[in-house]
Amino acid sequence: METIESQNKNNGDSANPSGMYFPYRIYCQGKPCTCEALYKVASRWSDGFAWEWKTYGLFCEACVLKGFARGLAHQKICAFARGENLDKPMILELSPGQPSIQMVRRVDLERLSETGQTQPGEVRS
User: Residue 69's Cα: distance from chain center in Å?
Assistant: First the structure.
């Protein structure tokens, strides 16, 4: 019987930190982008008993700040039932194979968005 690792060996996919191989890539949801997604824009939602991620989108480096701005706008118009809470959106680094709770928050990129930049490498004068 073949393992997932042996089935995917030499197919061009890279291993993630857990050693598992995935036969697919996650692509940016920015339009019309076709790059691989590196970031998740999401908020923590809670009903007072449990919490989960409310995902606004998955984005590449070039699209993440626009996606973050969209997430902020969507969060502001959300309606809630009694006891529900939705935190401010965050930019999280995608790490295949890692639980969502262990994603690294990219506050540096969130701050760039506050300056009005639309791309991480953009220089403002």
Answer: 13
- pTM for the model stands at 0.72
CA dist 56 → 12, 59, 107 (Å): 29, 10, 17
**What pLDDT is stored for residue 119 in this prediction?**
66
Token digits for 110? 């969130």
Q: What angle do CA 90, 123, 32 make, to 5 degrees?
A: 60
Residues 6+ apart with CB under 8 A from 76: none
As beta bridge partners, residue 40 has 58, 92
Q: Please give the pLDDT value at position 72.
A: 94
Q: 81 — alpha (psi -120 to 50), left (phi > 0) or beta? A: beta
Q: What is the pLDDT of residues 19-73, one digit of tens each?
A: 545 557 889 999 899 999 999 999 999 998 999 999 999 999 999 999 999 999 9
Residue carrying the six token digits 């999280």: 92
Residue in this structure with the two tokens 């791309």, named with its chain if needed: 119
d(CA 109, CA 120): 7
